Amino acid sequence: MIAPSIRVKICGLSHEEDIEAALMAGADYIGFVFFPSSPRHVSLSKAHQLSKRVKNAQKVVLTVDASDRELEQIVDEVKPDLLQLHGDESPQQARALSQKFGIPIMKAIGVSSPEDLTRVGDYDGSVSQFLIDAKPSSGQSSLPGGNGLAFDWQLLNDWRADREWMLAGGLTALNVRLAIKQTGATQVDVSSGVEISPGQKCGQQIAAFVNAAKGKNHES
What we know:
The chain is α/β, with parallel strands linked by helices and 220 residues long. The protein has helices spanning 16-25, 44-51, 68-78, 91-101, 176-183, 203-213; strands at residues 7-10, 29-34, 58-63, 82-85, 105-111, 129-134, 164-167, 187-190, 195-197, 200-201. It has one domain: TIM Barrel, CATH 3.20.20.
């Protein structure tokens, strides 16, 4: 039986053709990365132009410990539907940003052990949903996400979220159905898993991932 209502986020898009590929495939979220250290980073002017191409999907902006001024500029230029915080932003900061901009907040939580999931409770009342991602170990990467790393999905066996959440970390068209089945996720996020090189998306891989995640031509 095909699992219903799986929503897909394609993150780190930086070219018009990649946005078109994601939308054509049926992606539900289009993600833009604002983090200079990332190969997927986009400038404000480019993001402004790219955001105009997003139709019938939610625009998500990913930031990492951005300043208030940076966030103001990003929100003004892109007008996102969702703000993804992927740094060390506190629950108080998340709540303040949601109130300031009137935008739902998604907080990324890096996971490598059961203890990491306890951080979710700290953000009760501060965010609308969570991104549960792989947590790079020391020396693995300087990036908080988009590293193509998966975590042990069994860590989520006894975890229950009280709000929406999205699964990320090392997902590809080949493993996303298994990830959904094992974790019960109804939302999945991919970036490096649809790339031919860091920051360079592949339209065919985007389509394959969305089709696999949504169960098209696949059995769960």
